[in-house]
Amino acid sequence: MSKGAKNNHLKSNVNEFLSNKRNIEALTNVIDSFKNALERQIPVTSILLSCETIFVELLRSRDMTIQIKSLQGKENTPENNYKQFLQERYIETFNLIVECLGSDKQSDANQALSTCMKFIAIEGTFPLEIHDNNQTEFPIVHLNKVISKLLLSQRIMKNVIVKLSEYTMFDDFCYFVWKLLLKNLIPTTKNDLTNEFVQNYLELLNVLIPASPNNNQKNAEQDDDDEKRFLCRQVKFDQQLLRKNVNKIWNFIVQWPHNDVTQRQLLVLLLEKVLIYLDKPALLTDYLMDTLDVGGQVSLLALQGIFILIHKYNMSYPNIYEKLYAMFEPEIFHMKFKPRLFHLADIFLSSTYLPETLVAAFAKRLARLSLVAPPQDIIIILYFIGNLIIRHPGLKRLICDANGGHEISNDPFLMDECDPNKSFALQSSLWEIQLLKSHMLPYISQTAKNITSQPLPNREWDLGEYLEVKENDLFDQEISKKAKEYALTFERPMTETKNQHTAISKYWKF
Questions:
Q1: Residue 491: left if φ>0, alpha if ψ -120 to 50, beta else—which one?
Q2: What pTM value is reported for the model?
Q3: Minimum mean pLDDT among 58-67, 171-180, 348-357, 473-482: which range?
Q4: Does residue 236 contact residue 193 with C-beta atoms inside 8 Å?
């Protein structure tokens, strides 16, 4: 059967059932088509929409709703038995849709999530069972199936979880998702605590936690009874409850086993979302200091966390400059967070009260790295060194020594020394910048000349203008420059031949 014929057959079954809701065969055909599509691993978006059409109508029309009396319970009548049958098909279909959340085809996974959330929203308003008190409950059982699938899947569910962020505007949704997250903090077995589970859990937290406490107020000037704040039930979810949940969950997830990927993910979440909600940020001291020794991007993110604690919470860290000094290795030029490192280093070294021995070591180490750095990073390094010299005028003698014919082979600077105060940087010179004055790229050579020129400008260069510069930007900048036009011939060509005084022009006419 062709694709068009299958779609027509599917639509026919949907229309037949909606026109006669006792047509069990038509409903069964739709569900069987769903199962068959999942087994054959073919696209199911059309089937998802068909199931959504059927069961949304059944929920809204209350054709599946059963009245429960407090003393008598559920009556055993043919009508209730048929409604029970429809409920079983609804739950069966919902479970099939949840399985589609892990589909390889992103459109199917996104549609599955939309359908699940639509069912949850409508079921919360039109429940499957009505009790004498007429009190409606949030369908947390179905929400739990969705969250469990997102967390326990054997793959990274980032794209689907990002789409889930569309529902974080609803207080009741956030309230019950946080409740489920707290429930899943302790997996049943250690085997459940896989890297995929940790990554999906962190992605879900990233979606739920606002970047700023004010973002969670959802327009506080609005009336609290505004139905737009609730998916299906009015449940209060305030700032105090959010802070309590974040603190409780953080104390658990920071103790989970993490690889490099989840460690980076955890630190980014900490810096961008979690830190402002923690009641006792000082407890991060040991964690950040231990993470600072890991190396690479993880250490850089930990360094940013330490800077925030120093700047906002007046924390003091021993040997922080030694840690920062050790990060400047050739590998930084291939790091995703390289601009962040230069930005943080510029802030850490912004004080004019730092000892010249320390600042000279950073300047010398950066100058040495400039010899192996890509062109766009050489620009950053040169201006960074220039700013250090402007802050500490005593470092100008490093440039003067470089102009004095210092022998490179006798350079006393110890590049491998971990302690910047023992690197003998003040006894050396910035001969590396002198070499860059002869760089093949005019922009770099001119920048190096500006750094070594005397006197330096009074104002520092803004590193922010150069941190995101790419190699293609330097190329475009060079080719956009206008060059002088030089004459390539003394005689203006009047014909197709280049030279009018050749044998070709004498015997041939074009």
A1: beta
A2: 0.80
A3: 473-482
A4: no
